[in-house]
Amino acid sequence: MNVAESTVIETRRKNVNAQFSVLGSYYSKSINAQSNDMSSKFDDMAEEIANVFLNRIQIIDRSFNIVSDTYQINKGKLCISSDVNKCFNGNNQAYADKKNKCLVLTQAIKSPDSQDISYVMFATSSIADIYTAMDSIRLVVAAVVIILVVVLLGFAFFASYRMVKPFRKIEETIEHIGKGGTAERINLSGSSEIETISNSFNMMLDRINQLEESRQEFVSNVSHELKTPITSMKVLAESLVGQQGVPEELYQEFMGDIIGELDRENLIISDLLTLVKMDRTGLEMNISQVNINDLIEAQLRLLRPLAAEKNIELVFESYRPIIAEVDETKFSMCISNLVGNAIKYNNNDGWVHVSLNADATYFYVKVQDNGFGIPEDSLEHIFDRFYRVDKARDRATGGTGLGLAITRSIVTAHYGTIKVFSEVDAGSTFTMQIPLTHVPE
Ligand code: ADP
Questions:
Q1: Second label for 341, Cα 20 to 30 Å away, from 92, 190, 195, 322?
Q2: Any idea which fold 208-279 has?
Q3: What confidence tens digit (pLDDT) does each residue in 46-80 have?
Q4: What value does the mean pLDDT take over residues 216-224?
């Protein structure tokens, strides 16, 4: 509003000043034409202009006497004005006097012969009309702004209430879960952002439920797995205790079985500890530059006796020497698990081929066998904890059902991937892809 006001006043100032200049030049000419007798004719014209532009025009001579006044009040009187004084010193004035709501204009009238300033034309033009109009506009604008603010505040309140409402629902659900309640999916509708948040939240809830389910399943599996050898040992011990004069051979046999069950219990516990440690300290990797060829050869050396028992041919094929950043102990466990499985779940006189290759970024280990193979519907479960394809047979082979779960944890901790292809009675192929340098993809 202030800018608008200044612009209007400035426009008015320019217009009035233009008229004023015309009057000034006319006055100069009239001095020339009528010498000292300029007042009567000029007075008429000045009055006319003054009426049109609301001006009061006064002419002041060098002695500061008012020689002409369109209001006819001050004629003959003395004019004391700094603006007139400034004008006699060569500075014409044309400014808005906001206090008195008028434009103040002065113009020097030079005598045509000497070019000296003989008179000063001093005028005021009221701009009260502009201030009045601006004040009414200000009032209207203020009213409109107040109405707008009230409407906008109302709208903002309503909009924020609507926006916050879905989040309240999420907050309630989180609180409910925090207090131990079940994580039930929420169904929020609204803007696409809210729907996205709702979907993501539901995905998170599903994941929580999944984790809770797998935790419960894990606990029940662990209890079951740990209980089985204990039950066997109890049966064996009870049958020994319940018999009088047990023959030495039977006693030896049962004690041997008990030791076998104890070994198995031990194996399950150490596998479980490895897995739990991997889960907890998955990030605590002891990474170093390792010669992968040597690492695989060392593991195969350890497994050869097991392969020899079933007359299984164990072949290692390396395409190039490979040095990679891995955790040597953990990665050795992967090789041992995969090759161990390939021997365990194989027929007598079978074969196991291990191959090693690399490109610029990854190295690849392939463990291939021509053993039992894995049924298609089991393929997606074999990396689950305690999952075994054929419970009775796989338990008899000495498996705990944790080997592949451990292997996958280790591969993931190396930012790698593991894949399996298999066909029942034809064999299985496990492929690991591991980055040569230990950095996340
Ligand atoms: P386990 O200790 O029982 O061997 P794993 O986690 O190593 O447990 O393997 C899970 C199951 O996957 C095994 O019980 C077995 O049924 C199946 N499996 C794993 N490797 C092979 C393989 N090379 N050939 C056939 N079946 C396999």
A1: 322
A2: Helix Hairpins (1.10.287)
A3: 666 666 665 788 889 889 999 888 888 888 899 88
A4: 83
Going by C-beta distance under 8 Å and a sequence separation of 6 or more, which residues neighbour residue 38? Answer: 27, 30, 31
The two three-digit tokens of residue 166, written as one number: 């879905």
Whether the domain at 2-126 and the domain at 208-279 fall into the same CATH topology? no
| CA neighbor of 291 nearest in space, from 368, 367, 352, 363 | 363
Report pLDDT digits (tens) over 297-338: 999 999 999 999 999 999 999 999 999 999 998 899 999 999
385 Cβ closer than 6 Å to some ligand 1 atom: no
394 CA to centre of ligand 1 in angstroms? 7
| CATH class name, domain 287-435 | alpha beta
User: Which residues, other chains included, contact 54 with Cβ-Cβ below 8 Å and sequence gap of 6+?
Assistant: 125, 126
Residue pair 337/404 in contact by the 8 Å Cβ criterion: yes
Confidence of residue 44 (pLDDT cuts 50, 70, 90): low
Q: Where are the domains of the chain?
A: 2-126, 208-279, 287-435
- Sheet of 117-126, strands arranged across: 66-69, 55-61, 117-126, 102-110, 93-97
Distance CA 219, CA 223 (A): 6
pLDDT of residue 242: 84
Low-confidence winner among 8-12, 40-44, 168-172, 236-240 (lowest mean pLDDT): 40-44
Q: Please identify, by atom number, the ligand 1 atom nearest to the C-alpha of residue 387.
A: 10
Could you tell me which of 300, 316, 303 has the C-alpha nearest to residue 353?
Answer: 316
Distance CA 79, CA 53 (A): 22
CATH superfamily, region 2-126: PAS domain (3.30.450.20)
Which residue puts its alpha carbon closest to atom 18 of ligand 1? 341
The ligand 1 atom at the shortest distance from the C-alpha of residue 430 is 23
